[in-house]
Specification:
This protein has about 240 residues and is of the alpha+beta class. It has helices spanning about 5-10, 10-35, 45-50, 55, 110-115, 180-190, 220-235, and strands at about 65-75, 75-85, 90-95, 120-130, 150-160, 165-170, 175, 200-210. The chain has 7 helices and 8 strands. Strands 1, 2, 3, 4, 5, 6, 7 and 8 form an 8-stranded antiparallel sheet that branches.
């Protein structure tokens, strides 16, 4: 193979080709069986319950909601929730749930940055897991042996009046990540099996002392993130259809 051609075959191109093969392999048999349509996506399970988060917020174990309201950021409706627990100050929880079967993660983090007008630094990626035993109330037996891994963006943000440790990610039933493209690929693969990947944008804001060290608050941020992800997966993001 010519050297110039080998250079063009990058890992990214190889990955795209692999995904294209998967899409073709999944789509063609369904097409010939006559039970698949490019113009009609399968429904999002529990979409009504997911949308309701904007008005109700999210009930969390070990944390009490002291304020909840619907706010608009960048033309989208969010749940603004102040929660109180084992911390000296109320923590802010912002949630933007999927509002239709066609809506996708977009520029949610930019919308928050614009509304808060804060400066940021010390950004890092963290990982946490939600153990399968925590999901036993809402998913089938085949899921009980699975541990879900989530990646989230942690950074420090401040204004003239307040400093925060901020954690952001898109939550979905089998994981989560702050980059919309990661949800996109999960959604494409799910559609091969006539399934969808519902999502909720999550932003946790922990008030800290002025320019406090981010590392000191990472354990709290991670612990709360696990509780939020678990509550979403056992509730509105459950793979089991919930009652109206």
């Amino acid at each position: 193979m010519p050297k110039s051609l080998r250079v063009l075959i990058t890992p990214r191109i190889a990955l795209l080709c692999f995904l294209l093969i998967l899409i073709v392999m999944g789509a063609v048999p369904s097409y010939w069986r006559g039970n698949w349509s490019l113009s009609q996506l399968p429904p999002v399970i529990n979409l009504k319950q997911i949308r309701a988060i904007r008005n109700t917020g999210l009930e969390l174990t070990e944390w009490k909601t002291i304020q909840q309201e619907t706010v608009e950021l960048g033309g989208n409706k969010w749940s603004f929730q102040a929660i109180k627990g084992d911390y000296s100050k109320p923590i802010l929880l912002l949630l933007r749930p999927q509002d239709s079967s066609k809506s996708q993660p977009q520029v949610d983090w930019a919308d928050i940055n614009s509304s808060r007008r804060w400066k940021t630094d010390s950004e890092k990626m963290i990982k946490f897991t939600v153990e399968s035993s925590q999901l036993s109330q809402s998913v089938g037996a085949s899921k009980l042996e699975k541990t879900v891994t989530v990646e989230a963006r942690l950074f420090r943000a401040w204004t003239n009046r307040q400093t925060f440790a901020v954690l952001q990610w898109y939550a979905w039933p089998e994981g989560g990540h702050p980059a919309p493209v990661r949800w996109f690929w999960a959604e494409q693969l799910a559609q091969l099996h006539r399934r969808r990947v519902p999502w909720v944008a999550v932003c946790i804001q922990i008030p800290i002392r002025p320019l406090g060290k981010l590392e000191e608050f990472q354990p709290l941020a991670t612990s709360l993130a696990k509780i939020v992800q678990n509550a979403l997966m056992r509730g509105p993001l459950s793979r089991v259809e919930m009652g109206v």
